[in-house]
Amino acid sequence: MSTDQALRLVGTLPPDVAEMVALRVVAGLDPATVGEIVGRSPGAVRVAVHRALAVLSGRPGVSPVEVTT
């Protein structure tokens, strides 16, 4: 999958979740830093990103992604 395709896929998520996924997975920021940016706890960031990746990996044509959050 190209970067452009991946970003389009992330863009299908609700905006607040897409932001957390982008910051956590694309930018590589830790959950505490992402939480500070978006105003959520690190645990809430981990859960939201985990759930979003599970949703995205279940879409047709998308290979499962393993990310440590």
Biggest beta sheet attributes: none
Q: Any idea what the shape is?
A: globular
Low-confidence stretches: none
- The proportion of residues in beta strands is under 5%
Number of strands: 0
Radius of gyration: 11 Å
Number of helices: 4
Task: Determine the N-to-C terminus distance.
Answer: 21 Å
Task: Spell the H/E element sequence.
Answer: HHHH
Mean pLDDT: 86
Helix content: 55-70%
The chain-level structural class is mainly alpha
Summarize the structure.
The chain has four helices and no strands. By secondary structure, the protein is mainly alpha-helical.
Secondary structure layout plus pairing:
Blueprint: H1 3-10, H2 15-26, H3 31-38, H4 42-57
Helix pairs in contact: 2-3, 2-4, 3-4
Overview of this protein structure:
The chain is mainly alpha-helical and 69 residues long. Helices cover 64% and strands 0% of the residues. The chain has four helices and no strands. The protein has helices at 3-10, 15-26, 31-38, 42-57. α3 (31-38) packs across α4. It is globular, with a radius of gyration of 11 Å.
Main attributes of the structure:
single chain; 69 residues; mainly alpha; globular
